[in-house]
Amino acid sequence: MHASPHPRPRTRGQPRQAPPARLALACAVAAGVAGMADPAWGQSTPPGTAGPSVGWPAPLASAQQASGLPADAFSLLAWPVDGPGPRWQHLAGTPRLAASVMKLFTTGAALRSLGPAYTWRTEVGLGGTLQRNGVLDGPLHLRGQGDPSLVIERVQLMLSRWRTAGLRDIRGDLVTDRSAFELPEHDPAAFDGQVLKPYNAGPDALLLNHGAITLRLQPDAAQPGQVRASLEPALDGVTLVNRLSPKPKPPCGDWREALSLAIDPIPGWHHIGRQRWRVVVQGPYPLSCGEREWPLLWRGDGADDHGARLLSQAWQDAGGRLEGTVRDGRWPAGLPVWQTWVSPPLAAVVRDINKFSNNVMARQLFLTLGLGGTAPASLASARAAVTQQVQEATRGHASGAASASVCDGEALQLDNGAGLSRNERSTALCLGQWLQAMWRSPVMPEFVSSLPLNGADGTTRRWQAAAGRAHIKTGSLDGVASVAGYVEGDNGQRVIVVGLVNHPRADAGRPVLQALIDWAQHLPAGTPP
After folding, report:
1. What's the CATH code, domain 21-117+347-521?
2. DSSP of 61-98
3. What value does the mean pLDDT take over residues 344-351?
C-alpha cells in the first residue's frame, strides 16, 4: 500500500435522518418527558424550525444565532440528576448521529454488568515438553480473550515472564488463538478511506499495541544537524528507510505537511514466512520541532500481520528463539494453561476509553459484552447485550408506563459501540436517561471519573466551559459534534447535559454546546418539573 503524505480523517456522506414514520414509537415514548420543560425557561423550538431559536435560554439562543446553523440541527437537554425529567430540552426525541458519545453506552454497560474489577486473561500453553535447557519441543499456544490493553510495554513484560519461567527456544510454531471473537474481515478503509489512521483499527481477540506502530522523529544527539527516525514497536521483517532532510532554521509549523510516507512490500521472504516490507519517510524536517510522533495503523499482509510480526520481534528482543512461524490456530482440547497474563481492571480500561476516546479499545470492550458461555462474541451478540441493558435501565421513567423505555426502537441504534459509524445513533433523551441511570448506579464513581474533566485532562483539557466542574464526553465526525456528561452547578446540584449537532457545518455549533455546559452550571435550583 502507498500512503498519502498527510492522511486526514474525513468522512464521506452526510448524516442520514431516520424516516419520520419510524420515529413514531420513540417520539411517543419521549412525549411525556418532552412536555416537562420548566416554564421559567420556556419551551423549545418546534421540530422542523430552521430559523432562529424560539424559547431557548438567552445564552444558548445567542450562540445558536451566531453559529449560523438552524435550530433543528440541534438536540439539547439539561436534566438535574435528581429530577424526573429534563429542566429544558430541544428536539430531545430526535435520533441523531452522536459520534464518540456513544462510548457512554458501551462503558457504562460494561461497568454495570462486569464490575469495575473485571479483568481479561491471555493464556499461554506448552504444546510439547519444556526441557531444562529452555528448549520447547513443540509449538507454543497463545489464546486471547479480547484484552484492550496489551500495548507493547505489557507484551514485552509478558514475554519476559516466559523467559524467567525457563523458556528460551521454541522449536515449533507460535500459534495464536483469536476465536473468542467471530467477526467479518475488517476493512480499515471502509469508514473514511484513511487506512493509516489508528482509529480505523478493527477489533481482535488478541489485539497487540492496538494494531499500530509509531514513527518517531527527533534531532540526532549523536550526529548534530541530522534527524533520527525509528519505528515503535519494531516489527519483524519491516525496514525503515530515513530520507529526511534536516532544516535548521524554519519554525516547526505543520511538519507532517511537507513529509511523504510510502509503505510497500519488497521481494523476499522472512524466516517467519511473511513478505518483507519497507517504510520510506522523506522530506524536510525542521529541527525546531524536536521530538515528534506519527502514529500509523499497520496492515501489511493482512489482519493478523501486525500481531505476528510484533510477537516475533519482541520474542527475539527478549532473547528468545523461534524456529517455526507465527500463525493462527485453535487451542488444543485439554491443553493445560502454563501462564496467564491478567489485564488491568475494567475501571482503568474504561478511563482510557473515555478520557482519550480510544475507538479500538471501545470496540474490544463492546465485543466482550457479547461473550456468552463458550460461544464467541459477534457484533450481533454485543449489540443485543448492550441494547437490552440500556433499555432495562431506562424503562418506566418517561411516561409512567413500566413497559416503556425512552431508548426503545429507533431511539438507540448500536453498531460497533465506539461511535465511529454512520449507523450508530441515539436521541438526546435516551442518552440523558442513561446518564441518570448511571448516576444512580453503584458504579457511578468509576463511570463519572472516567469522563474528561473540563480544563484538566482528556479530550476537554483545554475547555474553559465549566472548567474543573464538568465531566464531559465529546464526539466528532464530519457533520457531527456532540457532548454528554455531568456539570456541577453553582448551588451544588449536578446537571446532566446532552448536546447533539447534525449538520454539514456541525463544527460551527460547538459554541452552542459549550454555552449549554456553562448555562447548566448556573442553572438555579427550582421545583423539579
Report:
1. 3.40.710.10
2. HHHHHHHT--GGGEEEEEEETTSSS-SEEESTTS-EE-
3. 98
